[in-house]
Every structure is written in structure tokens, then in C-alpha cells.
Task: structure prediction
Amino acid sequence: MEIRELGRQGLTVSALGLGCMGMSDFYGIRDEAESIATIHRALDLGVTLLDTADMYGPYTNEELVGKAVRDRRDSVVLATKFGIVRGEDPNARGVNGRPDYVRESCEGSLKRLGVETIDLYYQHRVDPNTPIEETVGTMAALVKEGKVRFLGLSEASAETIQRAHAVHPISALQTEYSLWSREPEEQLLARCRSLGIGFVAYSPLGRGLLTGAIRKVDDLVEGDQRRGFPRFQEENLQANLDLVKGVQEIAAEKNATAPQVALAWVLARGRDIVPIPGTKRRNYLEENLRAAELSLTAADLDRIEGLCPKGAAQGPRYPDRIMALINR
Result:
């Protein structure tokens, strides 16, 4: 597995990481035994970056990841996040970046993960009511205390990234990025590169749309949050699936799969980009990781660009209530 550098502070990770969210929340049926087996298989195949957050579950995903890596801590870069607050309403989202909350969240994550240090600690969403300087200042204190090694932000604006980086070096920005979601190309990638910040691409398979396995909303089980996402609604879904056909054609020519082509495309966007496709099954994990062996030529990339130009996906990537929390 190729190793890539995130930021200029010494953080190195596998070129492909593993998003663990769906093992515990949002995407339907859970299977802890298979999820842990998937994490172990990922580590065996050279994956070092595992991504979780306190709000996944909430809390249970950190516990699962901690259990899975208990005997393999030295081979793992553990990334987790704080800042999204969930209440009794499963659809409600709050954001908190206050210094006392940052500390409280870090202590909770350390306990659930069963570790003394978090390798990469992200602010999951920017709190508009707390200056980013205060939030990152507290995160920086956690670094000095040895509770955190490297700092990250998620779904932050270019201006916020600049302000945060002035307080303490930011090693990684995590934002959705795929053939379906190319908004980072407008400002974020350039700003990260100017500051020497790595980019972690979540949902690089378009929340499963780019796999071609989802043909209609009813393919998603009850309780899967994607059933309420705009890109999966009937008025948008068919148009989005039509875009997948071209990717599948390229994949067939290369004796590969559409997910492998989609991931290879993200990997080809720069060595400072690390996609973290999520899965809770070993067979999909192994399929995804083979994308690291797939080489796309300049002609391939031009062809993909023609099939899936920026803005081709129909519908926003989140419902309005969640879109309101990003790019702040």
C-alpha cells in the first residue's frame, strides 16, 4: 500500500483509509463481528488510517473501533471527530466548538477508543458561535498535553481554514469529494495546498451511488439515512445513475469495477489526497483497495471528465438542514 503524507507535521497514512461510520450508524443493519473482521482485514492489507467520530452511534462507533484495534494500536492511525451534537431527535444536529466542550469530547473519545492519544483529531463541523481561534487554541493545548498528535477540520471554508492554521498547524481537511461532489476544486484544494494541508476525501463513492448497486430508493433498507437524501430521490436518482453507466464502461475496459475507477480517479487528483471509502464488509473492502493498483491514463481521466463534469450530479448532497452546517 502506498503511503501518503497529510500536512507538513509528519503525519503519514496509507493512500486509502477506511471510513467506519456505516458499521454503527446511518446505513442500516449492523454486524459487529463482520465490522471488526473488516477492520482487521484492512490492517492486514496495509490500511493504516481508520476514521470514526463521537457522533457515530452516537459513541458506539468509537467503542467498536477501539475494540477492533486493542491489540494492534501501533499499526493504526486513529482519526476521530468532535463538534456535532445529537439529541433525542435522531434528525436534529447541533454544533459545539466551545473550549470546555472540546476538552470534554476529547476525554470521552480517549476513553471509548481505549487509547492515551488520538492521532488525528478533527473539528467535525465549524461552530459559527465560537471563534475558530478559540476552538483550535484548545485543540492545540491538547496536542501539548499529549492527548492528540495532529489536528484537522471537516467541512470548513477556505477562510476558516486559513484562520485556524494561523493558530496551530492543521494537518488535514476532511470534506466530501468524489466524481459526484467536486466542490473542493473551487477553493478548498488550492487553499489546502497553499498552506501545506492534506485532504481526506470522505464519501468518495458518492454514498454508494458510484458502485451501481443502488438502482432505486427501495434498495436501501428502512432506517438508511440515504433514503431522505436529495440525490437518491426519484427525480434525481435516474439522472445520477445514468452517469454511472459511463464509469462502468471504462471499468469494464480495464477489467475493473466502477468503484475502483471512482477511487482511482480520486487518488489521481493528487498525492496529498487520501480517500476513505466506508464499508462494513470484507468483500467490498478488498474490492475498494484494489483501486490502488489501477492506473488511469491522461486519456482515461479526460474521458471521465467528459462523462462526469463538475456539477453533473443532480440534487444537493445533503438535505437543507445538514447543508446549513457545511463550508462555514
Notes: The first helix runs from residue 32 to 44. Residues 210 and 244 are 6 Å apart (CA to CA). The chain has a mean pLDDT of 95. The two ends are 34 Å apart (CA to CA).
